[in-house]
Amino acid sequence: MLLKGFLHDEVTEINQILLENSAECPLLNDPTNEIIAVLELFLDWYNHVRQPMKSTEDLDAILLETAELMSMLIQVFPDKSGTFAAVLMFVFC
Length: 93
Fold this sequence. Notes:
By secondary structure, this protein is mainly alpha-helical. The protein has four helices and no strands.
């Protein structure tokens, strides 16, 4: 996949600086896999939401997918969780 490891060099460089300066903060973990998982889930959700003529079962599935997506977005991007909630409600409603 095109995005696999796209932050690897930056994370390695930052961790090296932290180690060289004996920083007391924890080393960074590469978040690429989590970001890719969120993007995949968002694209699946978006394609499902954009389908015309939804049945009651489709709407139930979309609600479950929305809750799952919100949870994952908050976990992967905690600093932006309020922004994501607003955007999803705008797109979904």
